[in-house]
Amino acid sequence: MHLHVASGYSLRYGAASPAALAERAAGLGMETLALTDRDGLYGAVRHVLSCADAGIGAVVGADLKVASTGEERIVVLAAGRAGYRSLCRLVTAAHAAGERGNPLVTREMVGAHADGLVVLLGPWSDVGRAVAGRRPDVAARLLRRWRGTVETAVEIVNHLDEGDGPRAARMLALARAAGAPAVLGNAVRYLDPEDHPVAQVLDVTRRRVPLDRRHLDDRTGQAYLKPVPEMRRVAELACGPDEADALLAETRRLSERCVLDPARDLGMDDVHLPSAGGDPYARLVARCADGLARRGLDGSRTAAARLDDELAVIARKGLASYFLTVAEAAALIRARGIRCAIRGSGAGSLVTYALGIGDLDPLRHGLLMERFLADSRDGLPDIDLDVESARRLEAYEALFDRFGADGTACVSMMETYRARSAIRDVGNAVGLPPAEIDAIAKAFPQIRASQITAALHDLPELRQSNLASGRLEVLFRIAERLDGLPRHVAMHPCGVLLSNPTLRDRTPVERAATGFPMSQFDKDDVEAMGLLKLDVIGVRMQSAMAHAVAEVARTTGEEIALEDVPRDDPATYALVRTSRTLGCFQIESPGQRELIGRLQPRDLDDLVLDISLFRPGPVNSDMVTPFLEARAGTREPAYPHPDLEPALRESLGVVVFHEQVLRVLDVMTGCGLSKAEAARRSLSHERGQAVVGAWFRERALARGYDAETVERVWRMLTAFGAFGFCKAHAASFALPTYQSAWLKRHHTAAFYAGVLTHDPGMYPKRVILDDARHFGVPILPLDVNRSAQAWHVEPVSEGGPAGIRVALSEVRGISDAEVHKIVDARPYVSLTDFWRRARVSRPTAERLVLAGGFDGVHTGALRRDLLCRVGALERSAAPPPVVAGQLPLDGADGSGLGLGLVPADDAAPGGLPPMTPAEVVEAELDVLGMDVSRHLVTFFDGLLDALGVVRAADLPGRPDGADVLVAGVKVATQTPAVRSGQRVIFATLDDATGPVDLTFFESVQDRCAATVFGRWLLVARGRVRRAAAARPGSGSASITAYACWDMTVLHEEWLRGGMDAVRAAMAGPPRPGRPVGRRIVHPTGFAMSPYSDVGHAGGAVKRPPAARLWHTSRGSSGPTP
Amino acid sequence: MTRVFGDPVDVWVSDGRPVRFVWRGRLYTVRRVLEHWVTTRDWWRERQPDGEATGEREFWRVEAAPGREVGVYELRYDVPADSWMLSRVWD
Question: Which residues form the DUF6504 domain (chain B) (predicted)?
């Protein structure tokens, strides 16, 4: 019955979810509910679905800003299919008319889309303003104009603010005098009266001001979803009992008229594909036949039978034009020279292989179509394309060009409040100083806002921070209540809608920050609306590989087609087996390096297994160990029944893949793979497990399997089924994994140039750089005459080994324009020459100097002197103007023979001391974010040797269980889900000889967590843990740590008081450990920490912290070099 | 003319609205509610805000009479304290 309701999709305005509103409305006995979010239909699809679930009628509208001098708003409701279409088009027009983020309508625009629309004029409309300003004559004239434009009703709202009641009465009198319909509204913003502080925080956050009564829209706490009797009472207070009844009756009538039918009015009952024309199915059949022939499969009877099966399903589901569309999209992207690979279950289809969408032969790798496309699967199948991240928008352009701006749109996504963002906004609202807000927000890991209080209690790194001292209680309590509210509309990173020109009748479209048209619906919404969403995912590794291939072509002339590289190169697998896989796709994390060490992959299928095994499910079910033992030959593979051997042989009796679950179900019940896929999907929830369990037992027993076998197989399926991995997906990941490893093995320098340029992995670039050193790739320093925009390969000397040159874009704060100017005006003969012709900003010039960019120009000059010179150049007059017709003084040929270009002048010594190696590295870390000239840890070698620290390179030689000290720069921390349900912290240190992987269990986190998350240079003590099936020397030994310290603190102690002081600093009393939070137990019995897999507390690890690394005191310029 | 008071009063409430009150020993009968409004508390200024209370302050502007002469009175109800006061009088 409520006609004017904002949900959280009214950004920084509404405070309830559409589902909660619908459920409450139904609970209050209302038969309809409208959702009229501000500026768009972002929540409309959820609202329609929620109302259907709650059994009430859904009304859809929008609360739109009207172009005016003040802030005027109207509510626009849609009646019927025509109304919904008009609403979509009006909202799109509003976003096109206003500047981005400030959509506007005019009365004329509303008039242009009046078909099926009903406008409500409330207190915020021009009519309402005139009534409030006691200008009934003006109000009557404005109302007449609206009624001449579009169907209009007056909306009576009384929020019980001072003056609201009399105003409502005058508004009603106006409507009655004009003979206009009048309805009752409450401009709802939240569910319950107690929610009003949240709305008040949103009011001031929207206006970017601190909390104060005069900045609030909501001063009365009345904008809740009021029950009908309360609405009647408020109306009665202002307008009298008879009018209250009349208003309620009119409100009901209008809302019933505006209820939309999801199928008839919104088109949810159909799919809306691009128009194909002709007979798409016949075209698809022909294209597939051609494709099989091209792939050399035309003689295969297996392939022909499989193709027939797949085509039959496609025919039954009427999806031929879908496949043709996706094939065309992939071809369009590749035609622009953009690398494009298929990911996900779609790789399991022979049709996608034949059409050239994917490059993996599903028959050869045992992939099933049913996981992707089956009669038992509803909706459109999901095909995802991976493209080069750096060229993702170019790929979108190709699609928009082909499918037309009317029939194409990006998908949006809502960024929602989480702990850190909620703390920031509430902190600003209550007026905390910005620095304090920043410190508080960063103290939290990247958890949900609703976990704030629990985290303060659970997490050792927060317990020690004194944040829970009570002073901040209000902040945290309100911040928790912002949990999950949308706060920003963004372009979804990959979804593109491909449809026909009716798309604009189905979804409002606005401009994304990138300029692309973007639907206001998110990925779930568009699926419900029957729209085809193609995921075009930007993958940095694809860009990195493209860069590497281009560098090989540039330096050697060799053209590599990665797709055609044989997939059985022994040298590549030999490299993978060493676990030295930093920079490679999917297999560089500490856990993966350990697993690879144990699994020792020999071919692509092993990589597929490896990627699938490294998931929470398999790890938690401890299926990894039995599998590895069977693989190592120390245990016979066990099959629950001989019939299952064919399905499980590839993984030696263990269920790893979804595809195997399907096969097992099919073998035991004879149900066919399509039905098996439906059963598999039901295994993920408890209710489904019960139903499928009963069915499975009955069918399997009926087919003659004994009760014990049936039970054993069922236990295996429930344990692994829900967590297994789609083999097609793993296989499509294994391909770039192999390709990246192949590049690392055979084109090492180009590989690092690609990885350093596009940064695809989890580690800071300085780790990749160090890895390059270990692989013998020389690192060439920044040089204004040689460094390019990106990292590139450069022979160290004529015909010498290939090194990699630091890229200009690594310089902190440098703009793309500056990079281009520097590259265009090369070469430079001096700093002065550079300053005059490259025209970069002073900070950029200074950073180039500090990071050594001029060391090659001014051999032997001191960076400090050059730095002074930059200041002098800036202070000196602007460069002399170039007079037309006269040769420029600097020399047009760039030889720099002009005035003031005497190099000696530039580098005139100024009596400053040279930078120490430590200062050089510090400057490099500050400017480039990486230690180029020398590894950071080498400055601490004295201390580390005195302590007897074991280096990464020496760890493989240490026995299992040995107690050791290790040290290094923190390069990664993770808290993945693990089998015990603990929050385990995995940290990786880099100590100049390689990575050291540390594990901190909950029992030691009280004394370690704050240091691990908060410090950058660490010393840790722990026991060596040797991976079970690892071969000696394979490098996969990790440390179970039980103590850790800040290396710089110990170093200061060492300088101050020698080893005695260091030992004293390390000898703190141990604190007892305790569990970190409760466990979440899944129906499959898998326990999980609520803090697993969340971003850690503190700043990002990817760049070094801004603070100085070591204190310089009394003549000391850092650690001893 | 308007006069401002802050006197505590006893108020009888029926059907959610004030019907009679006693001020300085005299009984006033409410003839008509002229206006009713509410304000929330400035919870962000308070030392220990519980943040859960609602309708923090209610105002009732009423026509009331102790005998024959009718005046306009503004009654204020503080929800958390459950207390009434007479805030303003027009007579």
Answer: 1-91
ipTM score for this prediction: 0.90
Domain that holds residue B55: 2-90
Structure tokens at A871: 């200041």
A936-1088 placed in CATH 3.40.50.300: no
Q: Does domain A18-257 have CATH number 3.20.20.140?
A: yes
Amino acid making up residue A874:
E
Architecture of the domain whose range is A418-484: Orthogonal Bundle (1.10)
Classify the C-alpha dihedral A553-A556-A559-A564 as positive or negative. negative
Total domain count, chain B: 1
In chain A, what's the furthest Cα-to-Cα distance? Answer: 100
Q: Is B71 helix (H, G, I), strand (E, B) or coil?
A: strand
Chain A residues contacting B via beta carbons under 8 Å = 160-166, 193-194, 196-197, 200, 211, 213, 218-222, 233, 237, 429-430, 474, 477-478
Q: Is B58 helix (H, G, I), strand (E, B) or coil?
A: strand
Helix, strand or coil for residue A7?
coil
| Number of CB atoms found within 10 A of residue A12's CB | 22
Reported as a single tens digit per residue, the pLDDT across A1039-1068 is 999 999 999 999 999 999 899 999 998 987
Residues paired with B62 in a beta bridge: B33, B73
Domain layout of chain A by residue ranges: 18-257, 280-414+490-541, 418-484, 564-736, 747-928, 936-1088
- Contact present, A673 and A370 (Cβ < 8 Å): yes
Contact B38 A164 (CB under 8 A): no
Q: What confidence score (pLDDT) does residue A616 get?
A: 64
A710-764 per-position pLDDT tens digit = 998 998 888 765 567 889 999 999 999 999 999 999 999 999 999 999 999 989 9
Could you give the CA distance from residue A777 to residue A800 in angstroms, rounded to a whole number? 11
| Fold match, A18-257 / A936-1088 | no
The tokens describing B85, both together, are: 């006061």
* Residues facing A376 on adjacent strands: none
pTM for the whole structure: 0.84
Q: Among A157, A160, A167, A425, which would you mutate to test the B interface (most chain B Cβ atoms within 10 Å of its Cβ)?
A: A160
Give the nearest partner residue to A194 out of B16, B35, B52, using CB atoms. B52
Which region holds residue A32: left if phi is over 0, alpha if psi is between -120 and 50, else beta? beta
